[in-house]
Specification:
It comes from Candidatus Uhrbacteria bacterium GW2011_GWC2_53_7. This is PEGA domain-containing protein. By secondary structure, the protein is mainly beta. The protein has a domain of 68 residues: Immunoglobulin-like, CATH 2.60.40. A hairpin with a 7-residue loop joins strand 5 and strand 6. The strands form two sheets. The protein has a four-stranded antiparallel beta sheet with strand order 3-2-5-6, with no helix packed on it. Strands 4-1-7 form a three-stranded mixed beta sheet, with no helix packed on it. The protein is elongated and about 80 Å long. Helices cover 0% and strands 46% of the residues.
Length: 108
């Protein structure tokens, strides 16, 4: 089957305009540096509990001075022997060369 011929029609006159604008940010965000180095974590809980840091199991209480990276962390302490599941969650900020200590008591 033959392909129909295309014919071009004169287009109406179109005016294109362009304008260059300069954007100046009003707010400049500076990156916040996380503390670098090592810190320590010590956790005591009654009764015996599991300790999680950033979702990773570190061990059971009492957890004495474990080295962790400096900066912000999610700490979860779960009672292992309570009659009903109980846990405490908190955010900790570990500064370099500092020991973060937490004590938790769960009701029996």
């Amino acid at each position: 089957m033959p392909v129909p011929e295309r014919t071009s029609t004169p287009q109406e006159s179109a005016h294109e305009t362009s304008e260059m604008i300069e954007l100046t940010p009003e707010l400049v965000l500076e990156p916040v540096a996380e503390p670098q180095g090592l810190s320590k974590l010590a956790v005591h809980a009654e009764p015996t509990s599991a300790v999680y840091l950033d979702g990773e199991l570190l061990g059971e209480t009492p957890l004495s001075t474990r080295e962790i990276s400096s900066g912000q962390h999610a700490l979860r302490i779960e009672c292992l022997v309570c009659s009903e599941p109980q846990a405490r969650e908190m955010t900790i900020m570990a500064e370099p060369e500092e020991t973060v200590r937490r004590v938790v008591r769960f009701p029996p």
